[in-house]
Task: inverse folding
């Protein structure tokens, strides 16, 4: 996975870990889980984690560093996806690769807008969820985390 797990488990049940840059696209998902899970399961899981982190930034107990950290984690996931798409070993057709790489550019631009302009990360969450639905169409979308105590939530989707 993109981050190492720590012993603490937040409200969403996903293990938290320190953020760090993967040493390359091949190590982005981790060698251990690559041997036991298929790539779609791994991609689904890392997107679910990144999405949960983004959604948690709207909770009342979120700190000022949580949004930049969540954006960073989401960018790491999408950077790994882009590296995989750009590799010669990737078997997707060129049209789909181009669309997903274009979506990666949008994720980075939207991430900048969220940080710079104070936008909600909702659109990023929606895109992640749409990709997750494509990876696991039979799996129900995970419940959204509330962004405040009133229970509002937020995201935008890809294609």
Result:
């Amino acid at each position: 996975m993109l981050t190492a797990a720590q012993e603490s488990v937040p409200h969403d049940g996903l293990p938290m870990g320190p953020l760090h840059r993967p040493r390359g696209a091949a190590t982005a998902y981790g060698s251990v889980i690559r041997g036991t899970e298929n790539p779609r399961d791994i991609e689904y899981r890392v997107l679910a984690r990144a999405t949960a982190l983004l959604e948690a930034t709207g909770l009342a107990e979120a700190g000022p560093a949580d949004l930049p950290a969540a954006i960073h984690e989401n960018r790491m996931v999408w950077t790994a996806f882009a590296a995989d798409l750009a590799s010669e070993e990737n078997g997707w057709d060129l049209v789909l690769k181009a669309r997903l790489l274009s979506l990666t550019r949008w994720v980075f631009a939207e991430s900048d807008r969220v940080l710079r302009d104070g936008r909600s990360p909702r659109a990023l969450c929606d895109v992640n969820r749409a990709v997750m639905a494509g990876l696991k169409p039979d799996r129900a979308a995970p419940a959204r985390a509330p962004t405040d105590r009133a229970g509002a939530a937020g995201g935008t989707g890809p294609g």
The chain is about 50% helix and 0% strand. Residues 1-13, 18-23, 145-159 have pLDDT under 50 and may be disordered. The helical segments are 31-36, 39-56, 66-86, 94-117, 122-135. The CA atoms of residues 48 and 142 lie 8 Å apart.
